[in-house]
Design goal:
2 domains, 26 strands, alpha/beta, globular, seven-stranded mixed sheet, Spore Coat Polysaccharide Biosynthesis Protein SpsA, Chain A
Length: about 375
């Protein structure tokens, strides 16, 4: 009998990435040339041999459905178990639940039917290589009711402002307090492990008392009645909850050490698309950039990330930019500090320059 089942809860993740979340939820935002943000937590669960995974979604999830399909790239396309994409609505007139508790209440069949005894609950905004089996071993060793995953941030940034912090007794590995003190380095990664029976009990209690959010109402406000342990994660970590954090984290991957920390420990799975290798024509000049399959480069690209099928014509100059799938950049164009979504056509002789702290953004399928 498998011991862990996964819940990826997107209900509390707001559309904070500007034009990138006009037509999709944050979990479906393209990242690092060929991936989506959802790929990282989903791959971590697959590496932990979690075979039953529920994805709780509420809005703008068409792009996510298209990306995930039946879950085959993650080896989750099983006849039994696998990947379940579960919206909250079922039109029950007796349903009193709200917030993310509505997801748990309306999809309780998934939880009851799973053979696992423990639940790994997470969101998609924290990019990491966390080993959920190691977290689970620690959870059992601590004999805890709940184990929260956190990381110590060496330098707090603006995008950490909204993150929950943990006050910890490091010798005992116990959580003493859960708060939002801005200068505290212990950032909660929105991941926890809990026994299934306790989870169901707490969900029912919260709904019966008119509460709305599991972490806040069942864990944070109930911390004195639960034995809550803290697992410190020490690997690669980034939180993507703003345009600036997305832009900075993306370009930080051009540093080979950062790239290796995220992608070398274990494979990150994603939807497979068969494209020819990138082509570099006679006038191409490319430095310190991540160029994906299917690209055709005839201009200059530096310190940038180009997704699949991007065309850069002769005389075009791209610097510190993120250019997504199937964009076309015409001749004599200058793009600097920009984020351009899918299928955008930039016509000749354009100059688009943003700021490092506020990149210029273009929503998908626009022409300029």
């Amino acid at each position: 009998m498998q011991q862990l089942m996964g819940i990826i809860n997107l209900d509390h993740e707001l559309d904070q990435l500007g034009e990138l979340t006009y037509f999709r939820c944050g979990a479906a935002v393209p990242f690092a040339g060929r991936y989506r943000l959802i790929d990282f937590v989903l791959s971590n669960m697959v590496h932990a041999q979690i075979q039953d995974i529920a994805l709780f979604v509420r809005r703008k999830y068409r792009s996510l459905l298209d990306h995930l399909g039946e879950g085959k790239p993650w080896d989750l396309g099983h006849k039994r178990g696998g990947l379940f994409i579960l919206p909250p609505d079922w039109h029950d007139p007796t349903d009193k639940s709200r917030g993310d508790l509505q997801h748990f209440h309306n999809n309780m069949d998934f939880i009851h039917r799973g053979t696992a005894n423990y639940i790994v609950h997470t969101g998609s905004q924290h990019i990491s290589t966390v080993d959920f089996q190691d977290v689970f071993r620690y959870h059992k060793q601590q004999n805890a009711d709940v184990t929260l995953v956190y990381t110590k941030v060496p330098q707090l940034e603006e995008h950490h402002t909204t993150c929950v912090r943990l006050e910890i007794d490091e010798k005992a590995g116990k959580v003493l307090n859960i708060h939002h003190e801005l200068n505290h380095p212990n950032v909660y990664m929105e991941m926890f492990i809990i026994e299934k029976s306790l989870f169901v009990e707490l969900v029912q209690h919260c709904i019966a008392h008119g509460q709305s959010f599991f972490f806040r109402d069942a864990i944070q406000r109930n911390r004195h009645n639960l034995k809550i342990s803290a697992y410190e994660y020490k690997g690669y970590h980034a939180v993507i909850n703003s345009v600036q954090s997305y832009y900075r984290t993306s370009l930080d991957l051009l540093n080979q050490e950062n790239y290796a920390q995220l992608f070398k420990p274990k494979m990150v799975y994603t939807k497979i698309k068969y494209e020819p290798p990138a082509r570099y024509l006679n006038n191409a000049q490319v430095t310190n950039s991540l160029i994906s399959n299917g690209c055709v480069i005839e201009g200059t690209v530096e310190n940038s990330i180009l997704f699949r099928g991007v065309k850069v014509h002769k005389g075009a100059h791209i610097k510190n930019a993120i250019i997504m799938q199937k964009c076309e950049i015409d001749p004599n164009t200058l793009l600097e500090n920009v984020i351009i979504d899918k299928e955008v056509h930039i016509t000749s002789n354009r100059m688009l320059i943003g700021d490092v702290k506020k990149p210029f953004m273009i929503a998908k399928r626009h022409a300029l």
